[in-house]
Structure formats: structure tokens, C-alpha cells
Amino acid sequence: xxxxIASPSPDARSASATLSRVAGEGTAPPMPRARGEIxxxxxxxxxxxxxxxxxESGGLRLRFPKAREICEGVIVNTAxxxxxxxxxxxxxxxxxxxxxxxxxxxxxxxxxxxxPPARIETSLKLGADAxxxxxxxxxxxxDHASLIRSLDVDMAADARxxxxxxxxxxxxxxxxxxxxxxxxxxxxxxxxxxxxxxxxTRLDAPAALLARPALGGGARALATLVFVAPxxxxxxxxCRAALADGPCESGVSALDGFLVARLVxxxxxxxxxxxxxxxxxxxxxxxxxxxx
Length: 292
Known about the structure:
By secondary structure, the protein is α/β, with parallel strands linked by helices. About 15% of the residues lie in helices and about 45% in strands. The protein has a domain at about 35-215.
């Protein structure tokens, strides 16, 4: 019996021709992108706060080095950094009277991209009388990196929030500047359902923009800190005193029930020192151990 030889279908021939053409042109197939997520709920149990439900996926983990009246969570990215096309989603909820501090194991590195941006989305929810300190360490953008970052907060009227985000453009130790790249940052904070703080930042070719006297004056590191609490305006002088004669340029403003601090510096190390000084006034205790 003669063997039966099946002819490829038109669709198969078309797909084969496409693959051959791509291989001939030397074009690599798309690289797989990382998707990571953490969702965690925190609740008060007497004088202590404990994590309730916890969900982790991808390369993101949440660890708890301290079990005291304040629950301290440390975010770990086991991938060691984020590349273009990666997507990280973080969602944390502090129930009534819970006390939570969230930080990161180290500075987050955003590597150069071959096209699509990296995305980091964070959402925080604070119940009545809850306290949440969102204190990640610096985000470092390599040259040719692209990052879209967002922070969305929904908090009760009597809740207390300290949120600080800092970013460094280029690796100073490597003599690198972020001449090419794209940074987009979006903040939305709602208290008792009312939008009280909204800000959008976009820096294309960050090094050139931050070199302008009216923008950064040569800065390569910047930070924003927002403090929302019923007594926040009364802490204005304390915050200004913490930054007075400090190692970087800074300013603090009191608005309707909250404070906003801005810090810029050509030195990431000096920016970090100023942030730690501000933490010491606002937190009423030492900064998370991983910051030391």
C-alpha cells in the first residue's frame, strides 16, 4: 500500500510562509511579559493588626518581618526588576482601626524597553480610623526605560494616610543619565468619597527636562509625599522644620486637610536623607528597617 501524504492546508502554508519570512528578516518573536499581583486585607485584632486575606501571583510576594501593633508588610519582586511590557498590580485594604505600613525590600529597577511601557498600578483603601503608610523605596529608571505608574486611594474621613513615592532617573554609580525614556505618574486620593488630590506627571527625555532651571535645576531624583489626616495642617511647621537646611531643595504646602511635600535633588543619596528626616516627624517612630 502506498503511503498517504497529506498536503498542508492553505492556512498552514500561510502561517509557515510568515514564520519563514520573520526568521529570514532576523526578527525575534515577542518576549513573554511578566504579570504580578498582590491583594491583601488587614484588620485590627485588639491592639494588634494582622493580615487577613492574601493573594499573590507572578513574581510578587508580601512578607511580614515584624508582628507588632503596627503590621509591617514588605513587597518583594522576585524577578529583580521590571522590563517594558511587565504589569504589576497592588491592592491593599486597611479595615476599621487597622494600622499598616507597606514598603519594598529594595529600590525597584525599571529596565530599558524595546517598545511597550512597564506598568505599576497601586490601590489603597482605608476604613474608619485606619492608618496606612505607603512607603516604597525608590524607583530607578534606566536609560530608555518607560514607566506608567498610578496610585489610587479611597479613605474614610477620619483615616490617616502617609504616601511617599520617589524616582531616580539613571544610575549615578554607572555614570548613566536618563536621556531617553518616558515617565508617567498618576495620583488620585478620595476622602469620604470626595476627590481631594489629583495629579498627573509626564516626563519625556527626563534628563533634558529636569536640567531646566524652572523644572528641576539639574535634579536627577525627585519625590512627592502626601499626608492626609484630620490634624494634617497642624503638622506643617514640623514638616518644614524637618526639611529646613536639608541636603536637597524642598517645599511643603498645607491644603484642605492634608499636606503635600515636594523634594528634588541632583543626588539620590541626599534625597533619601531628606525623606528619612520627613518620616521621623510624620511617623512618630523609626522608618521601616529596610530603609536603614
